[in-house]
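Box 4.2: Ligand-aware structure prediction
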Amino acid sequence: MPPRDHWSSRLGFVLAAAGSAIGLGNVWKFPYITGVYGGGAFVLVYLAAVALVGIPILVAEILIGRRARKDPVGAMRAVGGRAWAGVGWLGVGASFVILSYYSVVAGWTLAYAARAASGGFTGLDAAAISTLFDAFLADPTRQLFWHACFMALVIAIVVGGVAKGLERWNKVLMPALVAILLVLFVVALRSPGAAAGFRFMFHADFHKLTPKAWLEALGHSFFTLSLGMGAMLTYGSYLSTKTDLLRSAVVIAVFDALMALVAGLVIFPICFTFGLQPAAGPGLIFKTLPVAFAQMHGGSLFALLFFLLLAFAALTSAISLLEVAVAYFVDERGWPRPRATLGMGGVIFLLGIPSALSFSRLAHVHLYPGMTLFDSLDTLATNYLLPIGGLGIALVAGWRLARPVALEEFRDPRLFPYWHLAIRYLAPVAVVLILLFKMGVVG
Ligand code: PHE
């Protein structure tokens, strides 16, 4: 057996894991759900969910991966016992499902970056921009083209391996992403809507905190930290035992939350400056922000930066999704990495075709009533696959892994009891609540 590939440094791991966490969830989903659920109070609950549930599960995933040094299926079997391999299977399955449609949205960000680069939004009004987006969604050729471009990029990075592929690219893309976000943040701060944007984000109106908002915040803390499907577990399996696990997890989670907050503080001031609706929903960034860019001084440049930011964020998350599938075929089936990467990347491209066409040719195909295939897959994955996977991971780390063995992985033993309490009780209860809520039993 060749030696297992691993991160070349702690920084490499932290950047890659943060790259996985920081994605469309931060820049696209977080601002729009914050908009829908009324701002400040929702943000508070989301931060609490990250701290109390997200971080403990993040630690559990990295810990299980690092102990087993295997893909999610092998790791759950090794640490939890045979019966728990199913949780790993669920994770590998979820990676196929999520990446297949994630790549479609990521393709949109590439397409919009290309359009911005050619000044394609200048002079358009809100109606024209809305029509543009709808026409783009309904065009099968362009949907497939950008989906293919994005998957080709993901494959090209993952085929290089952990240190020479994932780590190297995260070291370039993550600083670029932070730099772009900061430039846009300065622009937003200087805009007339800045004060209103900040107020919207930080003014906590607890009347708006419905039970649905609570649980939505909890669910989002999962998606945004890439939890519940073995992405962080796989990244942990390439991590040196010398790295302080808890500290790294906290750094990753804080980085992720900060980027979500700053993304909101870019988007809301722009909305208020141009009189756009912060509660516009999923179309917020594709349908409303280009309206602002079209009217803004230097708008084409900012539009280009913004959609590049999204594309980079999506790319560093997508490579962690493909890596889960690749790790499975390399570790469990003994495939060489190039074969696993090209093969599974190709399969995921094919699986994504129905999602890419679900706005045109397959618009009549529904899994859930009234939802496109694309939305159905997102619902299936984030509402069921991730929370169920997260529950399995919490149970294995909290109840199947012997306490002294888990304790060994902690640099500072004083913090261990808090984690153990959270992973045994708090996280499972929270996840079961999410599931019951999603199934309509509560809320
Ligand atoms: N965390 C990513 C985001 O916020 C999504 C993701 C989920 C990535 C699960 C990997 C695994 O966009």
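In the box above, the bound molecule is phenylalanine. The chain has a mean pLDDT of 91.
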